[in-house]
Design a protein that fits this description.
- The protein is of the alpha+beta class.
- The chain has one domain: Oxidoreductase, molybdopterin-binding domain (Sulfite Oxidase, Chain A, domain 2).
- It is built from 8 helices and 13 strands.
- Strands 1, 4, 5, 8, 9, 10, 12 and 13 form an 8-stranded mixed beta sheet that branches.
- The N terminus is likely disordered.
- It binds the ligand Nc1nc2c(c(=O)[nH]1)N[C@H]1C(S)=C(S)[C@@H](COP(=O)(O)O)O[C@H]1N2 and molybdenum atom.
- Molybdenum atom binds next to loops.
Length: 321
């Protein structure tokens, strides 16, 4: 199928200048390389192979988080992705992520905790009851989706390891698999991909440790075998394919803060009143629903998740972008 892209947004508008320049260099090199190998060019929208059959992962619907929005199609959710370890084009993760090894897989939960522990993924899957939770997701690039995730609150895992009194922040570290991830050869960001939350944000019931979507285990391009999902923040906070979760005392510097500090702050709450330095965040395009002539949707404060507002009482959310 074709990979759809918001037709009125150029990649050069939605990617930091530095990244865009390195992406162009990468595509030129890649085009030369693939031409020599007789493969399809990277610039095109290759039809992706038939989706692999993924094991079912049923979750119990949690009515507390029900929303009226119509879920985005499985096809769109699994073929229009940001997962820079596999390439910077939206179709690259679906094209390349099949190579990711997701077993054996362990997740180390470490740092300021009383019971540090390395969990095997299959034990982690069963640590708490899996729930079905459909969340609105908003990318900082100006598009959104509605995704029926399967997972359980991150708080269940954090309570298991017991944060110490010094634990103030939680850092998330994605896998860096050199041999399966072509993107790691390019210094788009300082690999591995890392993200972070304040401890109270991480403990909020909306923060979901996520293992599946649409009732099946996560496709690799969506962050198998487990990722974090933080629906009131821009999508880049929701780090994929986690190998470590580290509790720390000081605010960690995330990979995007390091790559483009003036564009991506630690908080990254969805906030229509704080434009990205190079474009507005007031509206969004819902992938798969909005045609070329459909009006864009108004972006909602906290992506519509008002229940998190109390976490930021008294904070200047323009200074803490
Ligand atoms: N490890 C890692 N995690 C990542 C990214 C990435 O490039 N690498 N991209 C982020 C961005 S910008 C978005 S919008 C979401 C996209 O998640 P999805 O492809 O499942 O919709 O993943 C986030 N998590
Ligand atoms: Mo994003």
């Amino acid at each position: 199928m074709l990979i759809r892209k918001p037709s009125d947004v150029l990649p050069s508008e939605i990617t930091p200048e530095r990244v865009w320049r390195s992406r162009r260099a990468w595509m030129l090199r890649a085009a030369a390389g693939t031409a020599a190998l007789g493969m399809a060019g990277w610039g095109g929208r290759a039809a992706h192979a038939a989706a692999p059959a993924l094991a079912p992962l049923p979750g119990t619907p949690n009515g507390q988080f029900a929303i009226m929005d119509k879920p985005t199609s499985y096809d769109d959710i699994t073929s229009y992705n940001n997962y820079y370890e596999f390439g910077v084009d939206k179709g690259d993760p679906a094209r390349h992520a099949a190579a990711l090894r997701t077993r054996p897989w362990t997740v180390s939960v470490e740092g300021e905790v009383q019971k540090p522990r390395t969990f095997d993924i299959d034990a982690l899957l069963k640590l708490a009851p899996q729930e079905d939770r459909t969340y609105r997701m908003r990318c900082v690039e100006g598009w959104s989706m509605v995704i029926p995730w399967v997972g359980y609150p991150l708080a269940a895992l954090l309570n298991e390891v017991q944060p110490t009194a010094n634990a103030k922040f939680v850092q998330f570290i994605s896998v860096a698999q050199r041999d399966t991830m072509p993107g790691l050869r390019y210094p788009v960001i300082d690999w591995p991909y890392t993200e972070g939350l304040r401890l109270d944000e991480a403990m909020h019931p909306l923060a979901l440790l996520t293992f599946g979507l649409y009732g099946k285990i996560l496709p690799n391009q969506n962050g198998a075998p487990l990722r974090i999902v933080v629906p009131w923040k821009y999508g880049f906070k929701s780090a994929k394919s986690l190998v470590a979760i580290r509790l720390v005392e000081k605010m960690p510097v995330s990979a995007w803060m390091k790559a483009a500090p003036s564009e991506y702050g630690f908080y990254a709450n969805v906030n229509p009143n704080v434009p990205h330095p190079r474009w507005s965040q007031a509206t969004e395009r819902r992938i798969g629903e909005d045609g070329l002539f459909s009006p864009k949707r108004k972006t909602l404060m906290f992506n519509g998740y008002d229940q998190v507002a109390s976490l930021y009482a008294g904070m200047d959310l323009k200074a803490n972008y």
